[in-house]
## 1
Amino acid sequence: SAVISQKPSRDICQRGTSLTIQCQVDSQVTMMFWYRQQPGQSLTLIATANQGSEATYESGFVIDKFPISRPNLTFSTLTVSNMSPEDSSIYLCSVGRSGASDTQYFGPGTRLTVL
Amino acid sequence: SQKIEQNSEALNIQEGKTATLTCNYTNYSPAYLQWYRQDPGRGPVFLLLIRENEKEKRKERLKVTFDTTLKQSLFHITASQPADSATYLCALDTNDYKLSFGAGTTVTVRA
């Protein structure tokens, strides 16, 4: 298993500002994912972040809006840039060892409110 | 387009009864299907994974079936307890490493 922590757990931000969310894992993992979960909706994959390569973004998500860093096998950050109220959501990171054939472990999430 | 649909209504059941949740999908051919539990304010927690060549899998009071012809998975919680109250998510692999999630079904077990 993997234990994942996220910082901050929640934040309230002003429109136009940026927030960086940190994800720390207690063991080295190859695959790390960032999701968004809006109230009452499913998890939507934002991007996949593998160490040593550029993050791969899903349709509808771009690097300028959601820059991601993955400096090592236990840490990643997601920045939500130039925020608007539509970015209010829960942001979750998860890790997996061998892809969709294996378990994904999720962090507790960061609840973001943009005013 | 690809779509995953779970019970749209919340499920309220009496303690001791069996809860049955459905996960239907279209325009997918998943090799794996996973079920997760999510409690309020927490990230999802893995429960079970079933492969396309498996019809059924069990874990304690949980049972999952996978019918690739009907494009459906059923998730059963037998002898339900109030502690089973949570939202349950199904997830399908969209390629070798990515999962797509359904919106979830909220289960409330009454004592």
## 2
Amino acid sequence: EDQVTQSPEALRLQEGESSSLNCSYTVSGLRGLFWYRQDPGKGPEFLFTLYSAGEEKEKERLKATLTKKESFLHITAPKPEDSATYLCAVQVVAGSARQLTFGSGTQLTVLP
Amino acid sequence: DVKVTQSSRYLVKRTGEKVFLECVQDMDHENMFWYRQDPGLGLRLIYFSYDVKMKEKGDIPEGYSVSREKKERFSLILESASTNQTSMYLCASSLRQGLGNTIYFGEGSWLTVV
């Protein structure tokens, strides 16, 4: 069975304190790995898609990386506005509209 | 920008009522989805549709049905609402099937069944 596990469940950082969130996966065949940001009471907002091991993508203070077993979301010098829940999801069956299997998320709090 | 609009943000319904959740997307996307999100359980797929009048069950379809009469609109129906259907419901859409098609989400609908 395909599984996506995110760790830690919750993370508290001081403003400027860099860290990483982890998304590990066990799937039969990875087609794509997605990162989303979700603010309280709102829908997930798309951040990145990664397709193959070694790929990296950046957006402002965020950088996502991918290996054959996991993905990391690195947050450099975070600010309070980066506080949110970060979700990762894997696309496991190409050509199927079923598409994504989600992890449970990491709730990030950045303190001023 | 892709826009997925859920018409009702907050609803309170009584047990046994029929509930309609409406979703519209404005980007001519072929695929549309309904998820529910619960603390500790993450996002779970209820139903999805890959074309007008076409639908497939997701992981938790029991107690739900869907309707897609037009490409831009996808409705989730709770035939007889129950308290265990209290949740946040998320509609989403994507352009087509295949590799790397990003799923875009609406703002969510909070349903409370009392």
## 3
Amino acid sequence: EPEVTQTPSHQVTQMGQEVILRCVPISNHLYFYWYRQILGQKVEFLVSFYNNEISEKSEIFDDQFSVERPDGSNFTLKIRSTKLEDSAMYFCASRRGTSDNNEQFFGPGTRLTVL
Amino acid sequence: DQQVKQNSPSLSVQEGRISILNCDYTNSMFDYFLWYKKYPAEGPTFLISISSIKDKNEDGRFTVFLNKSAKHLSLHIVPSQPGDSAVYFCAAIASGSRLTFGEGTQLTVNP
């Protein structure tokens, strides 16, 4: 069964460094998402992406964040200058995008640790 | 952000019995609801969903009930199995497609 994949599974970085989290969505899906879950907190929406542009973003998704679909398969989240509070699980998700289908399918996540 | 709330952090049931997980919401613009299951070190796995035009949706052992007037939904699992032990998240969609999640309920099914 097709699934969303994410790399790396765990990323450790120093505060102020740039990180890129990678995702391969399900191949026939059209909508792509990033969510994060800080330890002990809710899963929070960051951004959605459709037709090669951001379709929606949350207040969390400020100028230090960016997303890109550099080719036909990868979807990346870049954090430009990491802060301690960016430490979280980051989940990528994708959705097929038909009008009667709202289900989003999640990858296994990348655990980001900022030291 | 308290738009979606799962008031029970944990639930413990015996194998073979019914598990009932509850979720309340405040945003009347939500028109689609989903339940996800999550094991440790994995991403959320989609279970079942329901549109606001329905009050019930069933898929095998899983049934979701929606009470729009009470802004309440529930997930019933029957019969419960030990493999169902996981964290269950309720999520909702308003306009756009972002998911708004509840806090999650840890279900433990005892053999």
## 4
Amino acid sequence: GQQVMQIPQYQHVQEGEDFTTYCNSSTTLSNIQWYKQRPGGHPVFLIQLVKSGEVKKQKRLTFQFGEAKKNSSLHITATQTTDVGTYFCAGSPRAGGTSYGKLTFGQGTILTVHP
Amino acid sequence: DAGITQSPRYKITETGRQVTLMCHQTWSHSYMFWYRQDLGHGLRLIYYSAAADITDKGEVPDGYVVSRSKTENFPLTLESATRSQTSVYFCASLSSGNEQYFGPGTRLTVT
């Protein structure tokens, strides 16, 4: 079955440093989504990428989808303490069939930010 | 209030007991999902439902049963709880924009 690997598992940074987490799928994806989970909270949708090579920005967050639609990254510039949490990528297999809406989540990257 | 809710939020049960976790959403979303979250494994799909009376297995369905008699409710039952089912359980529904909205979670401990 489809596997989505995410690295690193943990990342500790000083406030102001940049942060990147990487996501790789064993199969080509229809789209990839990113979610953030604050400590003790639930996952919250951040963004969806659909097109090959797509790049999207949300303030200090930059999301990329690889040309082959098998990998993705999330980069945070100048981290703040409010960025603390676990970031998950989640891949959706090629569109159609019984896979609609189903996501395979990566293991997540736990980000801690030291003030 | 609109949204997705789960109950109970915390549950402690004994091995062998039956436990039902409730999930309710007010958006009338067709698709709903149950995940379990364990450290090092991320979120793993247990069961999902495309509509009322339509359910299918996810990645880790063994030991769980679901039903969906109404669009807004998607209960998850552990028929005979085991310690390996100690986890945090999240219910989610799928918006028209393909975003999954998650409930607050149920923390289940099986002793």
